[in-house]
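User: I'm curious whether this sequence folds into something compact or stays loose and floppy. Could you predict its structure so I can see for myself?
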Amino acid sequence: MTEDSTPPALGGEGLGDVAQPDDAGALHEDTLMDNVNGEMSPEPNEEQLLYAKILERGMFVGLALLLVTFTLYATGLVSPAVPIERLPDYWVLSVHEYLEAIEHNHLHQGHLITGWGWLSLLNKGDFLNFLPIAILSGVTIVCYMGIVPTLLKKKDIAYAVIAVVEVLVLTLAASGVLTVGH
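Assistant: Here's the prediction. I'll summarize afterward.
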C-alpha cells in the first residue's frame, strides 16, 4: 500500500498495469497503458499502432479477395463443386450428412472433405471462397508475429514471449492437429 493507503489495484504502487481511477473512482476505457513504463497514456504505443496497421491491411486484403472469389463463384466464371441451384437441397442436412452427400453426388474424391482438405478443391468456386476466409482468420497470427520484433527491440521480453506463444497456440489450433469430438 502507498502512503495514502490506496490499494495497488486502485492505483497505489505495485500494479503498474492497472488503470488509474478519476476523482469519482471510475476507470476510463480511453486511457491506454504504456507497457514499458507502466505509465498511463491516452496515445497508443508503437506495437499497438503496428498491430492495428497489420490488422487493417490484412482485413482489406481478405475483404477484397472475398469480393473477388464470391463474384467468380456467383457469376459462374469458376464452376462450383455443388451447383448453386442444388444448394437448397442440402440446407436441411447436418454437416456430416452434407459432406457425405456432396462427396457422393459431386466430388467423388473417395473421402469426405474435412479440415484443410478444401485446399485441394480451390479450382471449384464454392471452395475458392474459403481462401479469403482463411486469410481473414489468420490475420491475427500475422499481427502478433509483426509486433514481436518491436517488443524485443524495446526489451519487453514478457510481452514478446506472450506474443510468440499466442502465434504458436493459434497456429496449432488452425492446423487441425488437435481435434475434439469424432
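Summary: The beta strands are 32-33, 40-41. Residues 45-175 form one domain.
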